[in-house]
Design brief:
By secondary structure, this protein is mainly α. The chain contains 13 helices and no strands.
């Protein structure tokens, strides 16, 4: 009788098994496109659409990767790196200042400001794009890194402010108060004390902006007119997907190349990213 009472009940085991099954199914759904992308990158053009589809190509080729490391692809790749890094620095820096002010200071319209930040996420991207295009045209910064960085900052800054505001809310204010008592000013305290404590949140925000900018397509296609300034997502569509040709093998090889920096970013900074996105989930 005691053994029966102490044996694990079937309910929790079934729930655990269902959870594992759900996780496995989710992994299959997420990894299937990546696996097919890698498989297609090694296929010659005449094998990509032959029935039935094959995971392992009959005659694998590296032609797509030779194209991926050509000058026509490396220049847009460098453009994407510069724009994504610049957007991450600008959006995270500006978002940190705004989020810290909203978190620590009490002023009239504080809630309305955050509501406006949230409401801007619902603006249609084409409407925002047209407005920014007119502004950048008058400022003379179309087809420049600055125009792309400002455009990507505009669409990511509200999310950064919300992420960091929740993070600053859970940081202990006693450390800042002790710094004020010792004679430190507001900017010194923010730079030397608050920002180091907020490193996980800043890393999460920077990774979010970098990945968003890295994958952004519409602004890169609209705000640039020369191949020397065009970022990689827009360049892929113009180089490999034309009216009379679809070079899917070359495009998939370039897509594999594009995925590697993002994967490396998450591998090296995943601990900070997870801490940053979960820091504001529970408040004391």
């Amino acid at each position: 009788m005691t053994g029966t009472a102490d044996s694990p009940r079937p309910g929790p085991r079934l729930a655990r098994g269902a959870l594992y099954l759900l996780v496995f199914a989710s992994l299959v759904v997420m990894l299937f496109p990546i696996g097919w992308m890698i498989s297609t990158s090694f296929k010659p053009g005449d094998e990509i659409f032959i029935p039935p589809p094959r995971w392992i190509p009959r005659t694998p080729t590296l032609d797509g990767y030779r194209v991926a490391f050509s000058h026509a692809v490396l220049v847009p790749l460098l453009n994407s790196l510069v724009v994504a890094a610049g957007s991450a620095l600008l959006a995270t820096g500006a978002g940190a200042l705004c989020a810290y002010g909203v978190s620590r200071m009490r002023f009239r319209g504080r809630g309305a400001l955050m509501a406006v930040m949230l409401a801007t996420l619902g603006l249609p991207i084409p409407l925002l794009m047209l407005t920014l295009y007119v502004m950048f045209s008058r400022a003379g910064i179309l087809d420049t890194y600055l125009g792309l960085i400002l455009g990507h900052t505009a669409i990511t800054l509200p999310v950064v402010v919300w992420m960091l505001k929740d993070f600053f809310d859970v940081l202990p204010q006693e450390v800042e108060e002790a710094a004020y008592i010792d004679g430190a000013g507001l900017l010194y305290t923010f730079w030397r004390i608050v920002l180091p404590m907020a490193a996980p949140g800043l890393a999460a925000a920077a990774i979010f902006v970098f990945v968003t900018s890295w994958n952004e397509f519409v602004f890169g296609l609209t705000f640039t007119s020369s191949s020397t300034m065009r970022p990689l997502p827009a360049a892929i569509s113009l180089l490999f997907l034309g009216e009379f040709q679809y070079r899917w093998g070359d495009a998939m090889a370039v897509a594999v190349l594009v995925t590697l920096p993002v994967m490396a970013l998450f591998v090296f900074f995943q601990r900070f990213f997870i801490q940053g996105i979960t820091a504001g989930a529970v408040k004391s």
